[in-house]
Specification:
This protein is about 20% helix and about 20% strand. It has two helices and seven strands, in the order βββββββαα. It has a four-stranded mixed β-sheet, with no helix packed on it. A hairpin with a 2-residue loop joins strand 5 and strand 6.
């Protein structure tokens, strides 16, 4: 599997190889390495589904749907193919639905061709014990 970084954002946790790959532990608000030279990105999360959003170089949120104002990257930090960016500043509902459809297709092509699970998730944990230990 190789090296990865552990992410805790809200009540969700997972792993990514898009940052430094130093086995670091990041929580919401923590500064992370730029992805492709960018400090504002969204990372597709293969295991656990959804999009890890980074704004101003810090973990911002883990959302079910892609943000139209952030460039999309795969879990290794490569731009997702077939997705236009930058997007329209205020996409219409139809434009947003089309973008989300293309994003799911791009994810399926990157993560194995099968359907990508984007169903809402229950909390992975109510309180992050690892975060408490690291910060306590």
């Amino acid at each position: 599997m190789g090296m990865f970084d552990e992410i805790h954002a809200g009540h969700r946790c997972g792993q990514t190889k898009a940052f430094g790959r130093t086995l670091a532990h990041y929580c919401t608000g923590d500064a992370v390495e730029p992805v492709d030279g960018r400090t504002d990105v969204q990372i597709a999360v293969a295991v656990g589904g959804g999009w890890l959003q980074v704004r101003s170089g810090r973990i911002h949120a883990w959302e079910e749907r892609p943000a139209p104002d952030l460039p999309p990257y795969d879990n290794v930090g490569r731009p997702l193919p077939g997705l236009d960016w930058p997007y329209a500043p205020e996409p219409t509902p139809g434009e947003r639905a089309e973008y989300e459809r293309r994003a799911l297709e791009a994810l399926a092509s990157v993560f194995g061709g099968g359907p990508v699970d984007v169903s809402p998730r229950g909390p992975a944990h109510l309180e992050c014990g690892t975060c408490a230990q690291l910060r306590g």
